[in-house]
Amino acid sequence: MARMIGAKAIFVALTALFVSSSAALTAPAAALSMRTGAVTSQPIGHYEFCQSNRSECAAGQRDPGAAKVTAFGWKTIREINAAVNRDIAPMTDKELFGTDEHWTYPDGAGDCEDFVLLKRRKLIEQGFAPADLLITVVRKPDGEGHAVLTLRTTQGDFILDNLENDVRHWTETPYRYLKRQASFHPGRWVSIENGDAVMVSSVGK
Predict the structure, then answer these.
(1) What are the 10-residue block averages of pLDDT along the chain, 205 residues in total?
(2) Which DSSP string do the residues of 170-184 spell out, in sequence order?
(3) Which range is the signal sequence, renumbered to this chain (predicted)?
(4) Which one of 3.10.620.30, 3.40.50.720, 3.40.50.2000, 3.30.70.3270 gives the CATH number of domain 33-202?
């Protein structure tokens, strides 16, 4: 009887190990893309940007679904990310405009939102769909707010960041994801429901 109980215990332990390992293997696949929720508040800086650039925030944007990016497309994405990071000097809105928030296309200098706007425009000029290029608000590990550009692809969501020249999958970044532009309307924003899931897959990397 003792042997049977011991064998059963080993079987249960191995089964539990297999289940937990399987969950760990499937978790990244489930988080390939951010899971968006309800419409939420639009950042004031983006609202004011839309007032000055109404055509960029108007309804009627077509959402063709996540892009299937070719090798040439990835080369273009990486080149634009690195070039904007190189050519634009990081400066705060307070330094440039004397205000806390002023979203605009940068002219030689800008803050994180300005980097995002310029990268988005350059990628649209290269043929990428606006619905796949979404301004995204995140929180850095130190609690500071930050903006990045999310690229939707059939391989998942990837991040263009002025603090990083590499284009990384969103789960390979250290951020907590809060909200982003809606793929169905460039003037609307939606919450990100699994924004903390990124922290799990980033541990130990």
Answers:
(1) 39 33 39 94 97 92 90 98 98 95 96 98 96 98 97 97 97 97 96 79 40
(2) GGGS-PEEEEEEETT
(3) 1-23
(4) 3.10.620.30
